[in-house]
Automatic annotation (TrEMBL):
Its EC number is 4.2.3.5. Its cofactor is FMNH2. The lineage of its organism: Eukaryota, Fungi, Dikarya, Basidiomycota, Ustilaginomycotina. GO terms for cellular component: cytosol. One of its GO terms (molecular function) is chorismate synthase activity. It comes from Pseudozyma hubeiensis (strain SY62) (Yeast). This is Chorismate synthase. Coiled coil: none annotated. InterPro entries: Chorismate_synth, Chorismate_synth_AroC_sf, Chorismate_synthase_CS. Keywords: Amino-acid biosynthesis, Aromatic amino acid biosynthesis, Lyase. GO terms for biological process: amino acid biosynthetic process; aromatic amino acid family biosynthetic process; chorismate biosynthetic process.
């Protein structure tokens, strides 16, 4: 027991009073053995490693928006894998700014430098450090007394100060999307191993910008020009798409944000009842099963649907012309995933994917498989029935589960969608409050993306690769250990407790 004393002020008499009482405490020996701040014990590391992702394939990122460099340290990389800087650079180049007039004008080449863990083009199995030097910083964009006095709306300025009582003086600091360079570099490394060792393919693409999205539901079609029923015109004026002198999405106005004109049209009159109730259309499912990265990269939007991509481009240009921003979604498909990955309960693979995706800056939503649409479908139509596949593998006829059941992969493709909000930095006057609570107006400067989703595609792919890579290493450790044990105890179990022998396809 320990004697405790507290001093408090009475609300009635305003006198200071002292209260003493006894409290039980844990074993003092345990208290004496708490790890010091420099300890690397698992308990302390779990609390301290706020910038580390993964358990067996561990990635630690570092850097701020305007510091000297950003990058990562990757631990758990298998030894003996061929690795060259270009294996990493390809994905970094897809992520880098300044790719088109749809992205931030910040001109960073983002050339990767591998600092350790690789010799003569071969991984050593030791930690791999990779960095990218910041070369086009403009911290003077943020040297303004007004900016210092106001937390930028929907940025992390306020929350970082609340947490740390100090923040970076320019840009978003640690919350900047520059931090994702380390993720993409590590993800490219993981993806190379997954492809070589297991044939895993990961492809992400932009599925929507604002209200413009690739048709994904039964009977859904892109909206047509309401006057003549034809696709919208692509004529532009000052970079903004116009139809008979007006923007298709609404007239540009300095009085407020532009409004989208129409959503996609859904007409299920030509579909059977069963087809109309499917969570995803046959056409969208076909897209998921065949889409390639080269098809995604055919346009700056990174949308494989030609007409939808053009409308998305126009929507981004309209936001840019109005000094505004717009959000969107990225859909990702992972093919050839080994079955058995993921853990029951708290470390389910879909939970790991959600964790990974929602850790990306600007993300606000995640759904996997049939997602929220699946909540509207009866179980008799939503259940994924099993069938013997031509390759002798037991698989499912449909894949509304998104390749994961009970938190564990079943060998089918994994597909999910990630929602990104509109970028918070906009060059408009915003009525807000200063740190001391005074009303005022803030107009932020700096270079920013009017829409982040075209550049978010390789980031989503990278985080997906990190999740699958970590799960593969966890499962490899489990199966390698089990293979050293005798099979006799398992063989003695009843059939209900073990995998039965698989019949041949032609039987």
């Amino acid at each position: 027991m320990v004697r405790c004393a507290f001093i408090f002020k009475s609300s009635r008499s305003l006198e200071l009073k002292r209260v003493t009482f006894l409290l039980p405490i844990p074993n003092p020996v345990l208290l004496d053995r708490r790890p010091p701040p420099s300890s690397s014990s698992p308990v302390h590391s779990r609390v301290a490693n706020m910038s580390t992702f993964g358990s067996h394939f561990r990635v630690t990122t570092y850097g701020e928006s305007h510091c000297a460099s950003v990058g990562c340290i990757v631990d758990g990389v298998p030894p003996g894998m061929a690795l060259e800087p270009q294996d990493i650079q390809t994905q970094l180049s897809r992520r880098r700014p300044g790719q088109s007039n749809l992205t931030t004008p910040r001109d960073e080449k983002d050339r990767v430098e591998i600092q350790s863990g690789v010799e003569r083009g071969v991984t050593l199995g030791t930690p791999i450090a990779m960095l990218v030097r910041n070369q086009d910083q403009r911290p003077h964009d943020y040297t303004d007394d007004t900016l210092d006095a106001y937390p930028r709306p929907s940025h992390a300025d306020f929350t970082y100060l609340e947490k740390y009582n100090v923040k970076a003086s320019s840009g978003g600091g640690r919350s900047s999307a520059r931090e994702t360079i380390g993720r993409v570099a590590a993800g490219a490394l993981a993806e190379k191993y997954l492809k070589e060792a297991h044939g895993v393919e990961i492809v992400a693409f932009v599925s929507s910008v604002g209200k413009v999205h690739i048709p994904r539901y039964p009977g859904e079609q892109l909206a047509q020009d309401v006057k003549n029923g034809a696709p919208i015109a692509t004529e532009t004026k000052d970079g903004v798409p116009v139809v008979e002198g007006k923007s298709f999405y609404g007239e540009s106005s300095t009085d407020g944000p532009p409004q989208t004109k129409v959503d996609n049209i859904i007409d299920t009159s030509n579909l059977t009842e069963e087809e109309a109730e499917e969570p995803l259309s046959k056409e969208f499912r076909q897209l998921l099963s065949t889409i390639t990265r080269s098809q995604v990269d055919q346009n700056a939007i990174r949308c494989p649907h030609e007409l939808a991509a053009e409308r998305m481009r126009q929507r981004i240009l309209l936001a840019k012309a109005n000094n505004d921003s717009i959000g969107g979604t990225v859909t990702c498909i992972i093919r050839n995933v080994p079955s058995g990955l993921g853990e029951p309960c708290f470390d389910k693979l879909e939970a790991k994917l959600a964790h990974a995706m929602l850790s990306i800056p600007a993300t606000k939503g995640f759904e996997i498989g049939s997602g929220f649409r699946g909540t509207e479908v009866a179980g008799s139509r939503h259940n994924d029935k099993f069938v013997l596949k031509p390759d002798g593998r037991l698989g499912t006829i449909t894949n509304w589960s998104g390749g994961i059941q009970g938190g564990i992969t079943n060998g089918e493709d994994i597909y999910f969608r990630v929602g990104f909000k509109s970028p918070a930095t906009i060059s408009q006057d915003q009525a807000t409050a200063s740190y001391d609570g005074k009303d005022g107006t803030l107009n932020t400067r700096g270079r920013h993306d009017p829409c982040v989703v075209p550049r978010a595609v390789p980031i989503v792919e990278a985080m997906a690769a990190l999740v699958v890579m970590d799960a593969v290493l966890v499962q490899n450790g489990r199966t390698a250990t089990a293979q050293r044990l005798s099979r006799e105890p398992v063989e003695a179990l009843p059939n209900s407790m073990k995998m039965p022998k698989r019949r041949k396809v032609d039987e």
